[in-house]
Amino acid sequence: SFTMTDKQNIQKSVKIAAGAVVCVESEIRGDVTIGPRTVVHPKARIIAEAGPIVIGEGNLIEEQALIINSYPENITPDSEGVEPKTMTIGINNVFEVGCVSQALKIGDNNVIESKADVGRNVILTSGCIIGAFCQVNTCEVIPDNTVLYGSGCLRRVQTERPQPQTLQLDFLMKILPNYHHLKKTVKASQNPS
Amino acid sequence: METLCPCWVGEHPAEPKVDSHYCPSCLENMPSAEAKLKKNRCANCFDCPCCMHTLSTRATNIPAPMPDDPTKTTMKKAYYLACGFCRWTSRDVGMADKSVASGGWQEPENPHTQRINKLIEYYQQLAQRERQERDRKKMARRRQCMPMAFSEKYGLGTRLQRQRAGAPLSSLAGLTLKEGEDQKEIIIEPAQALDEVEPLPEDCYTRPINLPEVTTLRQRLLQPDFQPSGASQLHPKHKHLLMKRSLRCRKCEHNLSKPEFNPTSIKFKIQLVAVSYIPEVRIMSIPNLRYMKESQVLLTLTNPVENLTHVTLVACEEGDPEDVNSTAKVMVPTKELVLAGKDAAADYDELAEPQDFQDDPDVVAFRKSNKIGFFIKVVPQKEGDTDVLVSFKIRHDFRNLAAPIRPNEEAGDATTEAIWLTHHVELSLGPLAP
């Protein structure tokens, strides 16, 4: 069995893979799975309210980013017949500082820039870049390699997908453990560190 | 920027003039002649054709065959342009990466440049000729000795005089070609109208539009040479230069505002702004304003100059053309208000004796170095949601400290003459109390 301390705030369904770097100051609630080589900065929040969240590998989730699988507005948590939907996030995505992502399905190599707001009904495929402060709350699939930018959320298509942030990830995986305690996944036989 | 000229006796809008050109991103200065040659564009910086932000140069390492040994490869740096905002890169339009960080990028050549240049030359020559004819007619009306005197006195500075040097009496000679005119006659052919035009492609109406490929009007019109309809033909353009301008009074040609030449400096060499000479009226506190009820509003008057200033407030008269917006009646203090000069050391000088001004406590609420607070009475005349607006005239004495003191005045009478200026002041006091 495990002990729950106030500081650590880990619930039993958080599964953090072996190579992931998840800072203790981040808030992870609900049924969340985090893949290897993913970095979660302090003050990031991953909240699985209305269903589980599965995060792939190589993702970068920066400070004050909010990834939330929440109930749609017209449904209360107690109503019946609501099936929990899983939010899947692919590999090599970047969630920059202060962004909010509620999209249920995010592919690979996407970048959600600072303070962007992605709604629940948006599906990001691959290589999409949601520009800073862009609010996308349409109900659509954003095609590959699309860039949304500007105050009017103008769009254009890129010819090449954004590069995976391997250098940054390697750097962070080396440096962050020097300054922060890390969350490890809680198993029945293991003490939380 | 409201400027104040020492000759100011009325409204004279200042005349702006171009002072210097500079690039907003690399802050490179350029004299006007060079800017004109480069068509007011910076040589080093580019604008993104997609979102019009500044492009930055990025480098990648690409393997390239070594010059000595074609089989081995070494990492060489290749540079490309990229926009940080919309993620456009120069590779999107097919521009190859360059091996030099700057100076390698060329704008595409306009296929019509030659024709346009020829047309411009022809019309310039035509305009010049017309100008000469006009001047010749003007000169012919004057006495004949005058042109000679002029050209000798003022030298061969103007083009007119340059070409007149050999033939002073050619004004009567008629339409002959002057000597020294080295331009040969430029002949242009008129544009040819074509009978046959390329037909539209067959699938013009049926082909589905590839929306990301279509350029917006703004993107298209920023490149007037090509006006591409496809995004894959949008090439970056050099960045437009910005200008610093200087202001000059139309009446007395006095320089009012002259910025520094250095683009990184925002200071001014000469800055005669009205704010530093005219006393400033500010609203300090507003009570609840009620329709048709008199209330007292506390205003402050600050003296920006270093000498004593006398201020009189006058309510606007009926039918005043400047008094358009006021929605309330205002009663201003009738007495003259005296403002102490601005003393920069006043904060630090504790031993300074406060000057005794004998203020009427009904009018002047407080006095603090160069600032006084005074009351005005306001009676709102309009009901509803509009803001209460009052207006009045402020009359103060303006001493032109920049003018030289006449040397034959005695030392005791060293103050310059005061000019009384009147300004219209409008204050918006916010909505009526609910």
Automatic annotation (TrEMBL), chain A:
Q: Which domain of life is it from?
A: Eukaryota
Could you tell me the Gene Ontology terms of the biological process aspect for this record?
mitotic spindle organization
Q: Does the keyword Cell wall biogenesis/degradation apply?
A: no
Alphabetized UniProt keyword annotations: Cytoplasm, Cytoskeleton, Kinetochore
Provide a GO CC annotation, any one: kinetochore
Q: Where in the cell is it found?
A: Chromosome, Centromere, Kinetochore; Cytoplasm, Cytoskeleton
Sample GO molecular function, one term: dynein complex binding
Where is this protein primarily located? nucleus
Which Gene3D superfamilies does its entry note?
Answer: Hexapeptide repeat proteins
Q: Which family does it belong to?
A: Belongs to the dynactin subunits 5/6 family. Dynactin subunit 6 subfamily.
**Entries under PANTHER family matching the protein:** DYNACTIN 6, DYNACTIN SUBUNIT 6
Query: What the protein does?
Result: Part of the dynactin complex that activates the molecular motor dynein for ultra-processive transport along microtubules.
Q: What is this protein called?
A: Dynactin subunit 6
* Organism, as annotated: Gadus morhua (Atlantic cod)
Q: What lineage does the source organism belong to?
A: Eukaryota, Metazoa, Chordata, Craniata, Vertebrata
Identify the coding gene: DCTN6
Automatic annotation (TrEMBL), chain B:
Q: Which domain of life is it from?
A: Eukaryota
Q: What cellular component terms from Gene Ontology apply here? A: cell cortex; centrosome; dynactin complex; myofibril; stress fiber
Assigned keywords, A-Z: Acetylation, Coiled coil, Cytoplasm, Cytoskeleton, Isopeptide bond, Phosphoprotein, Ubl conjugation
Q: Answer whether the UniProt record assigns the keyword Acetylation to this protein.
A: yes
Pfam family membership, one:
Dynactin_p62
Assembly mode? Subunit of dynactin, a multiprotein complex part of a tripartite complex with dynein and a adapter, such as BICDL1, BICD2 or HOOK3. The dynactin complex is built around ACTR1A/ACTB filament and consists of an actin-related filament composed of a shoulder domain, a pointed end and a barbed end. Its length is defined by its flexible shoulder domain. The soulder is composed of 2 DCTN1 subunits, 4 DCTN2 and 2 DCTN3. The 4 DCNT2 (via N-terminus) bind the ACTR1A filament and act as molecular rulers to determine the length. The pointed end is important for binding dynein-dynactin cargo adapters.
Q: What is this protein called?
A: Dynactin subunit 4
List the source organism.
Answer: Gadus morhua (Atlantic cod)
